């Protein structure tokens, strides 16, 4: 059977329901994250610096790594449909609590805890959607399906963020900033409730795990099964190398995002006008979204022409060149060009590697291998944020950070992805 094209997959009676859950949820994620970023980094009374922004990234990403060992265990034992329904419902309730705290201007430990909970749940949701996708479409269409799922989700994050920024601008005109952000969070809570209802369109066992593939033991076996996931990847070194390359790429991307936030907040606009900086970030995200779309659209054709392994290697090489645009001069045009090019090549690496990993594993190991994938990638993202925070000035202007990102990418191509090691294996 030939690979299904994009339009055919959109009409796929089962896969389209999964897309709806993912895209709706990630659109609401964008709305949530824009409200949170506005409150933490772009409020007039808060001066953004590299360390505070890096701390924000750590708060967002660390839950992914901390609960990662248990995500795969849960997804391999309980109905993923039920897990997705309950997770979205709990996330809606959590956002109501976050809205109350922000309404009252709370920025302490209590806010950190509830935000950690929200992003921790999000890890379970995205891992469950990724693990369930191969049960709805044939292996010959995994590249296209992944390109649509991941890229559509990323685009909806951008769209949701844009809607959030637009609504906040309207709300701020007649209310104070904290109250505007809390209203946005209540809108996001409603969006998550809608997402939980969309999950019910999937059958209880439609996205796994299948009864005969459920492992024995309880969910407390998380770290044991993480070890099994690593052991499985050792037998499939190309999948392991692809995961490591994707992790480094995402770590570098996080460092570039931090750079862009500081440039827009403190250099390209007056520090006393954070709304202008927020608008600049919105433009950069929109351009990045266009790059994400292009990267996903070209991936299936690139894979068909060069094969998965060579295509990942080519895209990672191109991604290594991209940060150099921002190394020698920092202005908005070069920032936008960097955002577009890094998004194109990075997204093509990601969707191709997702399909590569999925093609190597049966459902018995799928949950735990994707848990390993998530932990590795998100740990790299936290590392990228912390390292760049230590090197970046408050202005965001830096020659060193873009060059280090480029060098890291080239090292990945030369070592992890070299043809003698990163090639087709059964």
Automatic annotation (TrEMBL):
<keyword id="KW-0472">Membrane</keyword>
<feature type="transmembrane region" description="Helical">
    <location>
        <begin position="21"/>
        <end position="42"/>
    </location>
</feature>
<dbReference type="InterPro" id="IPR036259">
    <property type="entry name" value="MFS_trans_sf"/>
</dbReference>
<keyword id="KW-1003">Cell membrane</keyword>
<feature type="transmembrane region" description="Helical">
    <location>
        <begin position="149"/>
        <end position="171"/>
    </location>
</feature>
<dbReference type="InterPro" id="IPR020846">
    <property type="entry name" value="MFS_dom"/>
</dbReference>
<keyword id="KW-1133">Transmembrane helix</keyword>
<dbReference type="InterPro" id="IPR011701">
    <property type="entry name" value="MFS"/>
</dbReference>
<feature type="transmembrane region" description="Helical">
    <location>
        <begin position="83"/>
        <end position="105"/>
    </location>
</feature>
<feature type="transmembrane region" description="Helical">
    <location>
        <begin position="398"/>
        <end position="417"/>
    </location>
</feature>
<feature type="transmembrane region" description="Helical">
    <location>
        <begin position="111"/>
        <end position="137"/>
    </location>
</feature>
<protein>
    <submittedName>
        <fullName>Unannotated protein</fullName>
    </submittedName>
</protein>
<feature type="transmembrane region" description="Helical">
    <location>
        <begin position="369"/>
        <end position="392"/>
    </location>
</feature>
<feature type="transmembrane region" description="Helical">
    <location>
        <begin position="275"/>
        <end position="299"/>
    </location>
</feature>
<dbReference type="GO" id="GO:0022857">
    <property type="term" value="F:transmembrane transporter activity"/>
</dbReference>
<feature type="transmembrane region" description="Helical">
    <location>
        <begin position="335"/>
        <end position="357"/>
    </location>
</feature>
<feature type="transmembrane region" description="Helical">
    <location>
        <begin position="183"/>
        <end position="200"/>
    </location>
</feature>
<feature type="domain" description="Major facilitator superfamily (MFS) profile">
    <location>
        <begin position="184"/>
        <end position="426"/>
    </location>
</feature>
<keyword id="KW-0812">Transmembrane</keyword>
<dbReference type="Pfam" id="PF07690">
    <property type="entry name" value="MFS_1"/>
</dbReference>
<feature type="transmembrane region" description="Helical">
    <location>
        <begin position="48"/>
        <end position="71"/>
    </location>
</feature>
<dbReference type="GO" id="GO:0005886">
    <property type="term" value="C:plasma membrane"/>
</dbReference>
């Amino acid at each position: 059977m030939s690979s299904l094209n994009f339009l055919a997959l959109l009409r796929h009676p089962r896969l389209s329901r999964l897309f709806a859950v993912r895209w709706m949820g990630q659109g609401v994620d964008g709305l949530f994250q824009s409200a949170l970023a506005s409150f933490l980094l772009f409020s007039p009374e808060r001066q953004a610096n590299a360390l505070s922004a890096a701390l924000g990234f750590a708060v967002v990403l660390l839950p992914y790594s901390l609960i990662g060992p248990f995500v795969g265990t849960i997804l391999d034992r309980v109905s993923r449909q039920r897990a997705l329904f309950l997770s979205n419902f709990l996330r809606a309730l959590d956002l109501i609590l976050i809205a109350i705290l922000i309404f009252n201007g709370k920025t302490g430990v209590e806010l950190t805890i509830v935000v950690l909970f929200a992003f921790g749940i999000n890890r379970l949701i995205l891992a469950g959607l990724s693990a369930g996708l191969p049960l709805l479409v044939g292996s010959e269409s995994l590249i296209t399906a992944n390109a649509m799922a991941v890229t559509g989700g990323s685009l909806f994050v951008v769209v949701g963020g844009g809607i959030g920024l637009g609504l906040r601008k309207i709300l701020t005109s007649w209310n104070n900033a904290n109250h505007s952000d809390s209203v946005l969070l209540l809108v996001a809570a409603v969006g998550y409730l809608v997402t939980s209802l969309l999950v019910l369109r999937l059958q209880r066992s439609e996205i796994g795990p299948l009864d005969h593939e459920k492992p024995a033991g309880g969910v407390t076996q998380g770290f044991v099964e993480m070890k099994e996931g690593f052991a499985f990847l050792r037998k499939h070194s190309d999948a392991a190398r692809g995961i490591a390359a994707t992790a480094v790429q995402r770590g570098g991307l996080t460092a570039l995002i931090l750079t862009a936030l500081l440039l827009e907040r403190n250099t390209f606009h007056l520090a006393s006008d954070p709304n202008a900086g927020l608008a600049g970030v919105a433009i950069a995200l929109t351009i990045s979204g266009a790059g994400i779309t292009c990267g996903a659209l070209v991936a299936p054709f690139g894979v068909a022409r060069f094969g998965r392994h060579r295509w990942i290697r080519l895209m990672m090489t191109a991604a290594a060149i991209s940060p150099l645009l921002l190394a020698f001069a920092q202005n908005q045009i070069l920032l936008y060009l960097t955002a577009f090019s890094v998004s194109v090549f990075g997204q093509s690496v990601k969707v191709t590697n997702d399909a590569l990993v999925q093609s190597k594993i049966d459902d018995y190991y799928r949950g735990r291998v994707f848990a390993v994938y998530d932990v590795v990638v998100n740990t790299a993202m936290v590392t990228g944020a912390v390292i760049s925070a230590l090197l970046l000035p408050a202005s965001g202007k830096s020659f060193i950070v873009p060059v280090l990102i480029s060098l890291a990418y080239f090292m990945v191509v030369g070592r992890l992805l070299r043809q003698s090691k990163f090639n087709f294996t059964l």
